Amino acid sequence: MYREANHPTMPSPAATLASRLAAAVLASLTAAALLAGANAARAADLRIGYKAEISAADPHVLDAAGRNLWGHVYETLVGLDNALRPVPLLATAWRQLDDRTWEFQLRAGVRFSNGEPFTAEDARYSIERAIKLPGARTFRTYLKSVAAVEVTGPLALRVRTRSPNPVLPQNVGMVAMLPRSLGANVREADFAHGSAAIGTGPYRLVAWEHGQQLTLSRNPDYWGGPQPWQRVVFQFIPKEPARASALLSGLVDVIDASSASIAEAFARTSGRIRIVSATSYMLNYLQLDQARAVSPYVQDHAGQPLAANPLRDVRVRQAISLAIDRDLIAARVTKGDSVPAGQMVPQGFFGFAPAVPAPRANVERARWLLAQAGYPQGFRLTLHCPNDRYLNDAKTCEAVGQMLTRAGIRTEVRTLPYSVYITRATSGGAGGKPEFSAFLLGIGAVSGDSLEPLVAVAHAQDKAAGLGANNRSGYANAAVDDLIEQAMRTMAPAPRELAQRDAAQRLAADAGIVPLHHLRAAWAYRDGLAVQPRSDGFTYAGNIRPAPPALPQR
Predict the structure, then answer these.
(1) In CA terms, which of 186, 287, 461, 482 is 20 to 30 Å from 106?
(2) Where do the structural domains in the chain lie, given as residue ranges?
(3) CA–CA distance, 450 with 427 (Å, rounded to integer)
(4) pTM of the model
(5) The CATH number of 280-519 is which of 3.10.105.10, 3.60.40.10, 3.40.50.920, 3.40.630.10?
(6) What is the distance between the alpha carbons of residues 170 and 87, in angstroms, rounded to a whole number?
(7) What is the rounded CA–CA span in Å between residue 276 and residue 547?
(8) 65 with 457: CB under 8 angstroms?
(9) Alpha-carbon distances, residue 471 vs 282, 336, 377, 410, 530 (angstroms)
(10) pLDDT tens digits for 101-160?
(11) Mean per-residue pLDDT for 12-27?
């Protein structure tokens, strides 16, 4: 599954973050408050400073924070490990009966928190409810291929699809399993108040206090065995400096969405605060207008519109990519919070193409390509970017603008709040088309598979077929489309991955998009814990365990 960054992700740090954190470090250390998290009274509790607030209590409402936090209460048929590889959860096995039929064997001995046994009837109810749930934020996009859900035994489920879908297990794996006894009329308020908060997960809902915190208690009857924490509290702290201060003062044990600025300040704690990170699925990349014969934000050096859109020339797009020093951005701009990228997914994800490394900057080659394309003196370009969406988004764009200018493309960078930016990037131009000529976006392979990002961004736009939904540039290559469609109907993993790799190579050769980097997901935590990072940035209590402190306690 892909996720375009239309939900809160990693917020940009404030300009004065480092100085504020430094002050917080000094104040906190003098009080020795860090030890508060380790005392006996709190030994069985885990408190997490969490960047995002849950927007809905119903687990069938599509919400990134909800998927993470409600995942402690409700489980799915198929899970994803820390590297986003499919693993058994409430389904112990699955197989293809034919190109349009999947069979799932469900786990025996599982009970919901109200004591009811989990059966295939509950699984069918849950999937059908997720498909039918009204509203804009649902899982219908991921379940659109499902034609029928059939119960073939107490613990056997069959899912038929309208067309071949090789990622059906991951698609179905997005859906929380609920007891069918909830019926057709269960509502959001029932989940929020707790009467319908009935799951099979390792924790139970105690209370959801809007804007403040979510409190969970250990499920003593969990099929997966006892969990290390009696109580887990997610405190909603959207601002990064406030999360850092909460950790330093001992109010929380772990915080998510940590940045390099936090790491610099935490270095002053003499090892009592630790950092762990993983390369995330979130790609930041540029889309370049290839649809219009004349592009509104591409001009000659006198400020007049160019008669022909240079971004339609592959040599110009390649020059733009080669002008960007991704290693320098990672080292100086994001300070380690990003990993240079040349394709949709990072290494280790399904469909990653080893033959497509992150391009190395080559300004001389970029200038030569521009000259070959008929622009020896370059041209003027406006690069549009959000300034509050991705980690270091505005700073990254400023750096890209300087690099393009050095290569001969005199670039003006304009940044906007995301709420304004995404509307203009999608439909702000003439006829409701995308407005910008060059612009930064983010997309993520939520399931650790490159197929759906390729479908969404690299395929030519075909709204009726649901292809190219996020292709705002007008990029189109019939050979790439054919490879993507081949992968969509290929059920065997090896040939499917080969098709996706080939598509990634052709997309890179075209510079159809300009990948910049994958963001890193990072957590900061107190000494005496061990935290396993995840590539989706999710924070699971099961990934946080007590550990012997590295430093002597005083």
Answers:
(1) 186
(2) 280-519
(3) 26
(4) 0.90
(5) 3.10.105.10
(6) 10
(7) 14
(8) no
(9) 17, 29, 30, 25, 40
(10) 999 999 999 999 999 999 999 999 999 999 999 998 999 989 999 999 999 999 999 999
(11) 47
